[in-house]
Amino acid sequence: MAAGGGAPQHLSLNIYSSSGKRMWSQSLDQVGPSRTVHCTIPNLNSGTYFYHIRSKNGYYTSGQCMIN
């Protein structure tokens, strides 16, 4: 996805409720080549949420996640 073969990327993470309200936003700096990110998101009720991760060069991924 990125040029440079696993060079760190600067990403932004947004979490939305099922109704589309943004619940959380966080900058994810220096994501390593494993593409694994750990973050703590406080004060969310259990339920279904949607995430959107975007890089500065325009790539993004989105999906659904469950919080128990």
Molecular shape: globular
Uncertain runs with pLDDT below 50, 5 residues or more? none
Percent helix, as a range, is under 10%
The helix tally amounts to 0
Structural class, please? mainly beta
What share of residues are in beta strands? Answer: over 45%
How do the strands line up in the largest sheet? 2-1-3-4
**Largest sheet, if any?**
4 strands, antiparallel
Protein name: T9SS type A sorting domain-containing protein
Organism: Membranihabitans marinus
InterPro entries: Secre_tail (IPR026444)
Q: What keyword list fits this structure?
A:
68 residues; mainly beta; 53% strand; globular
Explain what the structure shows:
With 68 residues, the chain is mostly beta strands. The chain has a domain of 40 residues. 0% of the residues lie in helices and 53% in strands. It is built from no helices and four strands.
Question: What is the compact description of this entry?
Answer:
The chain is an all-beta fold.
List the helices and strands and how they pair.
Layout: E1 9-17, E2 22-31, E3 47-55, E4 60-67
Antiparallel strand pairs: 1-2, 1-3, 3-4
Protein name: T9SS type A sorting domain-containing protein
